[in-house]
Amino acid sequence: MGFPETIKAIADPARREILLMLKTGRLSAGDISAKLENLSTPTVSYHLSQLKKASLIHETKYKNFIYYELNASVFEEIMIWCAQFKEKPDHETQE
After folding, report:
1. Residues 14-43 pLDDT 10s
2. Which of 1, 66, 67, 75 could form a disulfide with 26 if both were Cys (CB 3.0 to 4.6 A apart)?
3. Phi and psi angles of residue 28, each rounded to the nearest 5 degrees, phi first
4. Model pTM?
């Protein structure tokens, strides 16, 4: 997915909460659902699929479980893009 889709994916508060959970390490969908008691399991699955489509997370399978982890490279790209607004261009002084 492109940059607009990535921004759209992180615009949702529930998805941002999931991303914050995954910051500490990989979690199963069940672990994520248990921490998001206010959301149904199908809703959590939907949010996970949207984060996967945006390449913000990836999944790995181990035995009967699917674990989700952050995709750090996408976050690095976002930070690099955002950093351009922090830097001030060099301007020659006008006399």
Report:
1. 999 999 999 999 999 999 999 998 999 999
2. 67
3. -85, 165
4. 0.81
